[in-house]
Amino acid sequence: ALAAAGAAMLRRSLWLCLCLCSCPARGLRIHEYLYFQVLSPGDIRYIFTATPAKDFGGVFNTRYDQIHLVPADPPEACGELNNGVFIQDQIALVERGGCSFLSKTRVIQEHGGRAVIIADNAYDNDSFYIEMIQDSTRRTADIPALFLLGRDGYMIRRSLEQHGLPWAVISIPVNITSIPTYEMMQPPWTFW
What we know:
Keywords: Glycoprotein, Secreted, Signal. It is found in: Secreted. The chain has helices at about 1-20, 85, 100-110, 150-165; strands spanning about 35-40, 45-50, 65-70, 90-95, 115-120, 145-150, 170. The protein is of the alpha/beta class. The chain has a seven-stranded mixed barrel with strand order 1-2-6-5-4-3-7. Helix 2 links the parallel strand 3 (about 65-70) and strand 4 (about 90-95).
């Protein structure tokens, strides 16, 4: 287990180094990480890592210091949402599966969401990022779409269920270069 964790940490460090060394400083590029912090509930007050979609969706032009992260109902967000009114002007947490990443992004956009975070449906995935790509339908989406590890998405949803909360409060994006390493609150189940 330690060897696998070390290998995952090494892969992530090498990948981040490659991105930082080969990409211009202007905005996020393919395979770069974007960070967000859960502010509430307190038991998951960590900084999470996500990756932007490869070839669709918008970028974060605004930093949100406090915005709701609302789990979609149904979780896969492949059609009409039961809680669409709560997604309006917020960020949706969606689960992978059932339809394309682009279809999910469009559903959230149609409900007025400012962005979508799509968590892997493999709840034990704590190190492998999926490259979210266009689904060849020639449709577009304007809001940012991010991929989140399955373990992270599961832990966020589980915490909300345990507390009986309809959403988390997050800050996104978070500039981790301005945070001293000893102050970074990383999820204990994920190796950075």
